[in-house]
């Protein structure tokens, strides 16, 4: 197998979304005069957000609806008189200001000199572009594709079809999808018929029937996998 194109997920693959999320929420609650908001409401928010992101992956809601609905439900649950529409917009703006690289990412990309590299992320276009442009990832990607701009999200086949069309790739065997989410990145790649690499730094057990082509725990493992192909071809 020879991969020419590497498709990367962004959140919790290249950038630490957990830290981004907490910092953005803390700032948001402080803006609304709730200095203890993160401690008081974070558990509820995470539970609500997970349900909605699962709904998004299965096509039961849209990204625009998710942006507002997660805060609408949170404020109803805790009897807070806050506009969820305005709050949702402020929150994604806060997200765009947070950049936290995952260990090993910069070294990884320094080793990927012989590949076309693209980003495929479920998220808001302006937010994801802002985070990439504020990081060492700036200018590394041939294209950046977000679910907001396509109207589809991983694991739907359409977003992968859109990516390969933009990259002018007709042979899926040349593409490897890399990400941390079994249900989104790996299932999506499997659905579309491209090879997949599960980035699993915490060594979570896979209790699903979703099987990646590769599983890695550190970024140097991916570098060895894809660069080994080049060495073998040159021999």
Could you describe the 3D structure shown?
It contains 10 helices and 6 strands, in the order E-H-H-H-H-H-E-H-E-H-H-E-H-E-E-H. The protein has a 6-stranded parallel sheet, with helices on both faces. Helix 1 crosses helix 4 and helix 3 packs across helix 4. The protein is globular.
Which labels suit this protein?
single chain, 235 residues, alpha/beta, six-stranded parallel beta sheet, 10 helices, 51% helix, disordered C terminus
Write the layout of secondary structure elements.
Elements: E1 5-8, H1 17-31, H2 37-57, H3 63-77, H4 84-95, H5 105-111, E2 116-121, H6 125-133, E3 143-146, H7 147-150, H8 157-167, E4 175-179, H9 182-192, E5 195-199, E6 214-216, H10 219-234
Parallel strand pairs: 1-2, 1-4, 2-3, 4-5, 5-6
Helix pairs in contact: 1-4, 2-3, 3-4, 5-10, 8-9
């Amino acid at each position: 197998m020879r991969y020419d194109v590497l498709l990367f997920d962004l959140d919790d693959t290249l950038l630490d979304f957990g830290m981004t999320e907490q910092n953005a929420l803390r700032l948001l609650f402080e803006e609304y005069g709730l200095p203890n908001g993160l401690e008081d409401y974070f558990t509820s928010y995470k539970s609500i957000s997970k349900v909605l992101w699962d709904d998004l992956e299965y096509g039961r809601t849209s990204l625009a609806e998710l942006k507002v609905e997660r805060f609408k439900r949170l404020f109803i649950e805790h009897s807070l008189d806050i506009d969820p529409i305005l709050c949702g917009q402020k929150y994604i703006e806060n997200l765009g200001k947070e950049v936290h690289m995952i260990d090993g990412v910069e070294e990884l990309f320094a080793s990927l000199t012989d590949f076309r590299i693209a980003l495929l992320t479920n998220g808001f276009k302006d937010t994801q572009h802002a985070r990439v442009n504020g990081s060492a990832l700036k200018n590394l990607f041939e294209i950046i594709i977000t679910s907001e701009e396509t109207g589809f999200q991983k694991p739907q086949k359409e977003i992968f079809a859109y990516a390969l069309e933009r990259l002018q790739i007709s042979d899926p065997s040349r593409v490897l999808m890399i990400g941390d989410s079994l249900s989104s990145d790996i299932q999506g790649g499997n659905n579309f018929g491209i090879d997949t690499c599960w980035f699993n730094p915490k060594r979570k057990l896979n209790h699903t029937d979703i099987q990646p082509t590769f599983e890695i725990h550190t970024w140097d493992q991916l570098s060895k996998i894809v660069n080994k192909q080049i060495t073998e071809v040159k021999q």
